[in-house]
Amino acid sequence: MTSNLTILCPGQGAQHVGMGRAWAEQHPIAKQTFADADEALGLNLSALCFEGPDDQLNRTDIAQAAIYTTSVACFRALGLTGATATAGLSLGEFTALHLAGAFDFVDGLKLVRLRGQAMQAAAETSSSTMVAITGEVTEEAINALCDKARGDGVLVPANYNSPMQVVISGDTAACERAVPIAQDMGFKPTPLTVAGGVHSPTMQPAADKLAEALEQVNWSAPAIPVLSNVTGEPHTDDIDTIKQRLVAQLTQPVRWSQSMQWAVAKLPGQFVEVAPGKVLSGLMRRIDRKTKVENHAEPK
Predict the structure, then answer these.
(1) SS3 290
(2) By three-state DSSP, how is residue 260 classified?
(3) pLDDT > 80? residue 281
(4) Contact 87/226 with Cβ under 8 angstroms?
(5) pTM of the full structure
(6) Could you read off the pLDDT of 236-270 as tens digits, one per residue?
(7) Nearest to 297 by CA among 135, 49, 70, 39
(8) Is position 71 annotated as part of the catalytic site?
């Protein structure tokens, strides 16, 4: 038995048609979780998760609620007890906070639904996108790349996924300028197919809406440490600070690589990734190859 159990919760991009279906078919508590989500949202979210279609499930305003629900259903079905910390990538930070007791399932579900809708709306009103930069990308190098390509637009680091990949985000024109510059710097740039430039100032309208929604939730201090995407370290017990960081997360970079490096150093033990997908397991292999993550994308 390990002394530490850290639960890792996936973010947007982990969604896929069929996610959560096997959990719901094999575990009544998972089936009930999906039913509760459908009722709370007045939306047949479970059908979108289990059957698609892809184009609807992949919409930001659907995907975030779908991933949150699937992750919670998986966690409940696993019957995990004794978790000593949680962490989630971007959207997954809301799942991580729920699992740590910061708010109940339905409040969290409504939050991520609103967050997804606000992000979708912000993306549709601005011409923005993202580019993955692969190589030995230091923070200094990625800042230099953004400075060279930004021009009069917006271009910032958005996701520190691993020591070998950072995603940049901003105006479409600035992202396009960044591609040849990144190549000249010796990196491999990959333009991403996304709704918009997440974790950049283009998401400020969504951040404003999220800030209002966070005030409508009944909060409790997390019972266990929850890692913050903004700082790469655990949240404090101060609920106002947690809310401020969740808002900031929409316009500031996600420091996933730094948070996992902190966890490996400070929380050695067992790491478990809940459904859907295997994104976080894959990132951990690039962050710290010695640390194994037990993945539960599907029931064993």
Answers:
(1) coil
(2) helix
(3) yes
(4) yes
(5) 0.97
(6) 999 999 999 999 999 999 999 999 999 999 998 99
(7) 70
(8) no
Catalytic residue among 90, 162, 228, 259: 90
Backbone dihedral angles phi then psi of residue 222, each to the nearest 5 degrees: -55, 140
Identity of the residue numbered 17:
V
- Pairwise CA distance, residues 114 & 136, whole Å: 36
Whether 126 sits among the annotated catalytic residues: the reply is: no
pLDDT in tens, 92-112: 999 999 999 999 999 999 999
Q: What is the DSSP letter of 152?
A: T
Given 98, 162, 169, 199, the catalytic residue:
199
Rounded-to-integer distance, Cα 46 and Cα 125, Å: 29
Cα–Cα dist 240/26, whole Å? 39
Considering only CA atoms, which of 100, 25, 86 is closest in space to residue 274?
Answer: 86
Q: Of 174, 229, 193, nearest to 54 (Cα)?
A: 193
* Pairing mode, strands 165-171 and 128-134: antiparallel
Question: What is the rounded CA–CA span in Å between residue 202 and residue 118?
Answer: 12
